[in-house]
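Researcher: Please translate sequence to structure tokens.
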Amino acid sequence: MTPTSARSEGPPVEADPLSEFDALLASADVDDTEEDDLVQTLASSRTGRGWVIGSVLSAALGVVLVAAALVAASLSPRPDPDPTSYVAAELSGTTPRPDPRQTPYAAPSQQHERPLTDLVDENWVAELSDDTSIPVRALIAYAGASLVATSEYPACGLGWNTLAGIGHVESEHGTIHGSHLGADGVARPAIIGIPLTGETTEAIRDTDAGMLDGDAVWDRAVGPMQFIPTTWAQWGADGNGDGIRDPQNIDDSALAAARYLCDVGGDLTVADNWIAAIHAYNPTIEYNNRVADAAAYYAGRG
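Model: Translation complete:
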């Protein structure tokens, strides 16, 4: 999570399959009332076929939001808003990409019993991955984290698609600048944001001696969900059950993001709460709008 849109350094990234949606969003004329209506209905849900399903209609974009999350281990996840096709503008940086030390924090006492990968139906993930172009490994983490959050924060109503939206905006689901998610969920090469020097972002001097970001002068956002070191120190999670909290691991970072959003936002089925939670993750109107737009798109593909 970044204080502003502090994206990772690296070479230009090829446009993803959803670039046409970006163009549609850029040209759409959506007034404030329509946007409020869109967010207001993002987490409404109904059940069917063993899935927990939510739907929302955006007349301006012609997108129907149908978010699904599987029922596993007696958990019932719900859908929320998520980003899907924006390729964020790159921020120029003058510091070479660091080679961070691979020393994740030890996991805290709060742990769920099963890895996120055990909570998700493989057939559902495979089908939805094809429909949304979200990598399977990332989608497993988003859905699993939503399930765990639903168990730990029953009143939250966090959907997988909100996490997917954030994951897309922050790192294109762990694929930005040539990185990719391995079968173990770890982003390689490590995803490291630009130094938070205050030029284009909030100024945050080093807080972790470069342990997570390889920079002993300035902090940088790290991992697929782009946590800054201080936030990770408080919210870092162990989503794969290996006993460590690694922000470069999509399971760990997705679960941390889910808990953070639920704790900050409370009932995310309330539009104002959802907006406030995303704002806490990144305090810009543009970011909030991008996550909401993408969430609607992803849910519509589900």
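Researcher: Any highlights?
Model: The first strand starts at residue 45 and ends at 48.
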